[in-house]
Amino acid sequence: MKRITLTTILMALVGLLMISCERDITEPTISSNPAGPELANLSLNVPFNVNNADSLVRFSWSEADFGFKASIAYTVQLSPKSDFSENVANLITTQQLSGSATVDAINTLILSWNYSIGENVTVYYRVAATVSPYVETVYSEVKSAAFVPYDAVINYPMIYVPGSYQGWSPGAENGRLFSYGFNSVYQGIIRLKDGDNPTTEFKVTLSPNWNGPNYGGTLTQSGDNYSGVLDPNGGNYVVNAGTYSFNVDVDALTISLTKTDDWGIIGSAVPPYDWSQDVDMFYNGQRKVWEITADFNAGEFKFRANDDWALNYGDTGGDGTLDAGGDNIPLPEAGNYTIRFDPVKLTYTIKKN
């Protein structure tokens, strides 16, 4: 009987201790209405241009309130849309109440949204505050700032396409593909023409030389297009001569080529200066435009695809926007020029060198 009584007393004491401990623990309670950070206007004390590419654009904000003390991650987000419905970029992530990004980083971001150089662009920004994947993110109010993107070449990651069309030279300017999304997918447009040969051979290399991995193999043809795999032991790829849009995924080890338009310029300003034949342009994949640098006469010219008048562009009204079948584009004086043409945005630039 005494043993039973002692056991009962001990069990009761343990129960009381457990109840006491439970009362001493304060569990965090998430506010039903957490407050997002208050965002200050961004700060940039110099002009937004290439001369200040390394200068800092500064963002600052107050602490978010989730109803309890927590380790909060803050992310500065930018978008060309006020509702952040597309092209949302995470510019900075920090646990501090401020952060900075370079002018160059923001300029690169704006250009990646396919805005034109010199175009006034409204950029919207906000701060997201996060404590856990299981707790809903809270945001600051949305603010905006106007920027004019400047001419700058984005240093996209590259792979290379050496072949018979360019002397089998890995790393040559003619034969580069770019990862516009900074991921495993590389794209570009290449004219695969080896003189008068009906076919062209090439390979894909990950380095601007033959020292790193290189790929070949057999492509499957479908109409004018091709697809296949990246085989590290494969022979040279072979395709019909032409101009192709490439899509290469170095993780999935896939490759596809889609035949596309081959652009040139023609006119009284363009050699041979008599509207009799095109001069081929070169696709600059880093800028995503067709371009040519050459000596031109005073005169006129147009952009023409595939050495044929079925698809051509001029500039009716001289407003800098291209029109299908539009008026001839004047070149007032002779000289050495760089002419660039964007068949997606239907814009062009003429720069005298």
From TrEMBL:
Domain SusE outer membrane protein as annotated: residue spans: 24-127
Keyword Lipoprotein (UniProt): yes
InterPro entries assigned: SusE
Keywords of the record: Lipoprotein
Pfam families for this protein: SusE (PF14292)
Matching CDD domains: CBM_SusE-F_like, CBM_SusE-F_like_u1
UniProt superkingdom: Bacteria
Protein name (record): Putative lipoprotein
Organism: Melioribacter roseus (strain DSM 23840 / JCM 17771 / VKM B-2668 / P3M-2)
